[in-house]
Amino acid sequence: MAKSTIYSALDLRDEFNQILMRESDIALTAVSTPSSMLWEWLVMPQGLKNAPATFNRCVTHLLRSVRDFAPSYFNDVFVHSPAVNGKTDVEVHKEHIRELLELMRKHKLYANLKKCIFGASEIPIIGCLVGKNGVRLDPEKVRVINEWPTLSNVKELRQFLGLATYLCKYVDNYAGKIRPLSQLLKKETEWKWTADCQQAFDAVKQGLTEAPILAVADQDRPFHVVCGASDFAIGCALMQHDHEGRDRVVYYQSRQLKPAERNYPVHDKELLAMKYALAKCRVYLLGSGPFVVYTDHASLRTAVKSPHISQRMARWLSFFAEYDFRFEYKPGRLNVVADALSHRLDYEPTPIGLASRVAVDDDVNRIVVPNDSDLRMRIMYEYHDAPTAGHPGREKTYVLLTRDFYWNHQYKWVRKYVRACEVCQRVKPAAFSQAPLQSLPTPSECWQSISLDFVFGLPPDSKRRTGVVVFVDRFSKMVHLVAVSAEVTAVQTARLFVDMMFKHHGMPLDIVSDRDPRFTARFWQEEFTLLGTQLSMSTADHPQTDGQTERVNRVLGDLLKSYAHSFQQWSDCLPMAEFAINNSVHASTGHTPFYVNAMRHPRLPSMLGTVASSLSGGGSTVVSEQPQKSADTDTVSAMTTRRQAASRSGNETTDKKYGSVQGTDTATKNNTSVQGTDSAQAGPAAGKDAVLNKPFST
What we know:
The protein is 34% helix and 16% strand. Residues 610-698 are annotated as: Disordered.
């Protein structure tokens, strides 16, 4: 259509019904009517899976003799004619129309006269208007975009981007413009319409309103491609020179980089942009003859000649071999199209100099640990094996550790350390998951709704107590634990409720518990009626209703097995178990219960050395990492001295109050090498008799 000046469009009528069904397939189209009769289709009905493809293939085959001037797309046939051989475009167009109509009469294809357009300078084709001047947007679609109200939820955003993305080939730097909007589509992202989102929303609407008229691709003229990449997007444009020598855009395309692609070096990003351009313009470029790819990265000209290439580069070079093109370097100041597509910044550039590199951020008090394997192992012991930690999993250990310390490849160290923990392997069961029937409504503030449950079946302690009462705040996930006897009464439970809950947090509005007799007793009913608190009972024989405390009960069992070194000692470990649970990051909130309640993290014993150093005038706690031991070790000297006592082999000290064994045997010594070190792992690695192996029930 590049050289045509007059156009017509024909719409085929009852397109599917113009194709007869194969006799053996007629029975497959039977339908039942309200009159209880079966009817069969003799022609192809709508709704069959392969009906559109069958019809399109049929029309293309029947009109193959006129496809040079009358291409078809499903039920639409587009006729275009130029002025040739001394004939005007109108005369040529009449001949083309007559030839097409005779062919349609021969094959019994009928057109809908009301939808046909004849002898126009511009016709609508698949959502755009094509004419002698090029391709432009349909004004009706632009009007819909301009009148689109401000978005209020993800569903409306998807609808808007669906239409805008369909028209993105008319907008330069479309991927860069919608970047703030696409961030809202990420999983588990909270909907928050910011000023950047509004600016992006307006920019897309303005870009579609001011969209340029694209040139119609002319296969008789050579193409050239411009492409470029930035830190967050890649873009390209397919271009041609018109008959007047002007550079015209045929096709715009851009997209955002994936998280992994953002880590590519600059050289690979530029090659990725070129690969993206060739893939998007494949229908125009493949087999069209030699063309030029313009880039603002000069090293791409010698990329194919490099003797050392990565596997990714080898795959891309194999893809490039399908095309006949050559590189030409165009400096960034001249490569304006690629820069507009990919180099648009969505943020203000911030100069980074020496002052910003050595500046101290008072809000980030993390210690950079030097390259000392023994020191790193002791620090990980404090955040995983110590009683205040409670042997959390890999993710929770990493979050706790990175709150106060930093070193390179920290997550790999934590993963290997937790995987080698002998206590975790011995006492923790395999993970399993169950789908709940229905979640309880989420409270709006701390201690508004709590869960209450008992854990019984534990070995008798020194006071003959065999159970634990568990209080859980359903908002912050904070836990309170109290050891009780198996004969605990409703009155005693009420007193524990006042001592552990009411005096610290006040009266909750809602309490979730199971149908234990202590909770269904008349005393509880009367007390909560007087206090104005609702007592919600779980479904009978279905403890998953009170899933909050059931999950805590399971974690509590693992902690007690990790702490106690005798059956009678488990109750002494409850304070440390409660602290460890409340200081672990909860998956549902993303924060620790301590932080949700008080908006601060508790001070750990491992940070006392840092506090002492700061109080003594030691300057900033953020220091540079050096391969040799330096002032970093002195900064945490008090902490290190205390940890060294826990690293000695043999049983040395036992905290009788909390039941924490500070350095027993070296059962985990063989699993402590992290980067070629032979340092032993110190920690409460209890023997076989030192674990609470007796099962318990809730």
